[in-house]
Amino acid sequence: MIALWIPAPFDRREGDVAEDEEMPVRVRTLFLSDLHLGTRGCQAGLLLSFLRDYDADTVYLVGDIVDGWQLRSGWYWPQEHNDVVQKLLRKVRKGARIVYLPGNHDEFLRDYVGTNFGGIEIAETAIHEAADGQRYLVIHGDQFDMVVRHSPWLAHLGDGAYTLALTLNTVINRIRRRVGLSYWSLSAWAKLRVKNAVSFIGRFETILAEEARRQGANGVICGHIHHAADRAIGDLRYLNTGDWVESCTGLIEHYDGRIEVLHYPSILRAREAEAAPRAVTGRRAVA
């Protein structure tokens, strides 16, 4: 079963995954969830670029990192997915602490809570104390999704429809790349326009915030619903990491304790916009 997390071969070293020339941005903590490695919807190329751009003292993998549901129905593990795993393991070798909190799609790892694989700690939940003293409950969130907990067959049925939407998403973005357009998520766009989905997200946020209160925390950091967020619910702070199949988002904590949502496609677009005038100036100078 562990092969789903670290597929053989898994002993590659420094030179096997190419590194960017620029130094990565250093942050105190990085929170990522819902990578869904092992599915065609995983944006592994963007994720690998993100992991090259950001280093952290501590990395929380907040569930659904590997998609055991999809891998059981049909094996899919391209080289880019292996490169993501190798990049995470390399961060451990360079001194980062990585804590893996399994979700419903990688729930097989919950059998190994309390153990350590390749320097990666497996835990059900965690309490993270930020540099400013604020305490956050870190949890995937499926534990409070009533469909997942009490009607798993319905959750699997919904997952099939979601997979179809992601397939369409992949096709659309392949076409967009060919015509020079940036990444755009069909499934995320549709989800935010469906009344029931919006209502579910609101209930989910409230329930998770109340669980953080029950555990004496100042807020909660979770994943599961593929909807990045940072907002106040009463006197509590609700943060969601988002995902790497639709929005390509994560959370970072700076060394002063500030936590923010990063939307990686927006960062890349800003870089491209900044680089464009320099490229034009360079061509003029040559002319």
From TrEMBL:
Segments traversing the membrane: none
Matching SUPFAM superfamilies: Metallo-dependent phosphatases (SSF56300)
UniProt key word Membrane: yes
Alphabetical list of InterPro entries matching this protein: Calcineurin-like_PHP, LpxH-like, Metallo-depent_PP-like
UniProt keyword list: Cell inner membrane, Cell membrane, Manganese, Membrane, Metal-binding
Gene3D superfamilies: 3.60.21.10
Native source organism of the sequence: Methylobacterium brachiatum
The protein, known as: UDP-2,3-diacylglucosamine pyrophosphatase LpxH
A single MF term (Gene Ontology): metal ion binding
Organism lineage string: Bacteria, Pseudomonadati, Pseudomonadota, Alphaproteobacteria, Hyphomicrobiales
Domain Calcineurin-like phosphoesterase: 28-227
UniProt-listed GO biological process terms: lipid A biosynthetic process
Domain of life: Bacteria
A Pfam family of this chain: Metallophos
GO CC aspect terms: membrane
Record carries keyword Plastid: no
PANTHER family named in the record: BLL8164 PROTEIN, UDP-2,3-DIACYLGLUCOSAMINE HYDROLASE-RELATED
